[in-house]
Design brief:
Blueprint lengths: L1 H28 L4 E5 L3 E4 L6 E6 L5 E3 L2 E2 L5 E4 L4 E5 L3 E9 L3 E11 L3 E4 L3 E16 L2 E2 L5 E2 L1 H5 L6 E5 L2 E2 L3 H9 L6 E7 L2 E7 L2 E2 L6 E2 L2 E17 L4 E4 L15 E15 L8 E6 L7 E2 L2 E3 L2 E5 L13 E2 L9 E10 L2 E12 L10 E5 L2 H7 L10 E4 L2 E10 L2 E9 H8 L3
Parallel strand pairs: 1-9
Antiparallel strand pairs: 2-7, 3-6, 3-8, 4-5, 4-7, 8-9, 10-20, 10-27, 11-14, 11-20, 11-22, 12-13, 14-15, 14-16, 16-17, 18-19, 20-21, 21-26, 22-23, 22-24, 25-26, 28-29, 28-31, 29-30, 30-33, 31-32, 32-33
């Protein structure tokens, strides 16, 4: 009987130990394996665990732990109290956390980066983009003189969203150029080089003569350019790089991200507002300012916005100077502001709340959920509307991200992107 009780006690003790260790591991899983901090910043952690751990480090003074320099020796830490990682200089340090001196709990790499400051945007910009090649946005049948309907593009395997790059190895410039090349074919088979989902594909298509105008056609509706109004997010005076929109420019019919051949941003002003209501997104209606000089070129159109080099220093009339950026690990759920333009060219700050933050390891324009709380903005726009995309989000005098999308059924709410993703896409690391 005594032996049975003893064995049960041993099993209970082992079970409790396993449960306790599992709980500790779960708590430690909340600490990211890679921590990025800017020079001069600090991060506070509160594990609330009544245990002591040993932390061994590489031999450098990149960071301090609770005010003490790490010199390569093991440091004992009581996790029952909050502890603080402070940056000391640029560089990288590895932290190995152990329990009882031999049980590994976590390996953490802390990267300390030089502070990055950019000028926040908020001003409306006109966007003019010419695509590389021409995009197929639709396919239709063609009636010929024999009274029958033919669909050369469909038979060739051409799809909506394909980008025609070459015809018979001649690079196409625009829609007119494509029409001319097809028109001169005399009905002979053409070799088309197209881009489909980042892969080049070669297809053969045989044009037919249309009964309507006696011209040779392939039955593809194409688009070679687009234009619209968005919002500038940031300008970096050190590199002359700007970023805007926070999401890609896509073809309105196919949803495919447009490839950039050439493009520019120009000054724009907001002339009217279509407020957002449940089930229908609102819109800022703007005009390109006549005679306005080009503000910059468009070099990239990515999932996280458009980017290029500015022709001049891009500032806003709200007198916002250079601001430091904030990485996703330091953004807090709670009050913030957005800078945007809803009247003319006036940039103003409006109150919002960051409702939810998403931990992300790769770029995504839906990083956080934003709710508009500003009475003036709600009254005039209903919340977030089309044209606000790219409006910088400010928290604690730091740029944390930009507005990207509105919720169709909740115009007072929408998504925002972390500023670090936009800077990465811009090449500002």
């Amino acid at each position: 009987m005594y032996r049975v009780r003893f064995n049960r006690m041993i099993l209970l003790l082992i079970s409790c130990t396993i449960i306790a260790f599992s709980f500790i591991c779960i708590k430690f899983s909340m600490i990211p394996e890679n921590i990025m901090l800017f020079e001069g910043e600090q991060q506070l952690y509160n594990m609330r665990l009544p245990i002591n751990v040993d932390i061994s480090t590489s031999n450098n003074d990149v960071v301090k732990l609770n005010g003490s320099h790490l010199n390569g020796d093991k440091v004992k830490l009581n996790l029952g109290s909050p502890f603080k990682i402070e940056t000391n200089k640029n560089g990288k340090v590895d932290l190995d956390i152990e329990l009882l001196g031999f049980l590994p709990l976590k390996h953490v790499t802390v990267n300390v980066l030089p502070q990055i400051k950019v000028i926040p945007g908020g001003s409306s910009v006109g966007v003019k983009l010419n695509t590389k090649g021409v995009m197929v946005v639709g396919i239709s049948a063609i009636e010929c003189s024999d009274g029958k309907q033919y669909n050369p593009s469909l038979e060739a395997g051409i799809e909506a969203g394909d980008v025609i790059l070459k015809i018979n190895d001649v690079e196409v410039k625009d829609g007119v150029h494509v029409s001319n090349l097809v028109g001169k074919s005399s009905g002979k088979v053409l070799k088309l080089t197209i881009m489909r989902k980042d892969k080049e594909v070669v297809l053969s298509v045989k044009p037919v003569k249309s009964k309507e105008d006696q011209k040779y056609k392939i039955g593809a509706w194409i688009r070679d350019s687009t234009a619209g109004v968005g919002t500038l997010t940031f300008y970096d005076p050190k590199t002359n790089i700007y970023g805007a929109l926070g999401h890609p420019i896509t073809d309105v019919d196919t949803g495919v991200i447009l490839t950039v051949e050439t493009g520019t941003i120009v000054p724009a002003k907001i002339i009217s507002i279509q407020p957002g209501i449940k089930g229908r997104p609102g819109e800022l209606r703007g005009l390109f300012i006549d005679g306005g000089e080009e503000l910059g070129n468009i070099e990239k159109n990515t999932s996280c916005g458009i980017y290029g080099k500015a022709n001049k220093t891009l500032t806003n009339n709200a007198s916002f100077k250079e601001m430091p950026i904030c990485l996703q690990g330091q953004i807090k759920e709670g009050p913030a502001k957005i800078l945007t333009t809803i009247n003319g060219t006036d940039v103003k700050a409006y109150d919002v709340v960051i409702e939810k933050l998403t931990v992300q390891s790769k770029p995504n324009p839906k990083s956080m959920i934003i709710r508009v709380t500003d009475d003036e903005l709600l009254k005039k726009t209903g919340g977030i509307v089309q044209g606000m995309s790219g409006s910088p989000i400010i928290q604690d005098d730091k740029i944390v991200g930009a507005i990207t999308h509105v919720f169709i059924n909740r115009p007072d709410m929408g998504y925002g992107i972390y500023i670090e993703w936009m800077l990465n896409e811009a090449g500002i690391n």
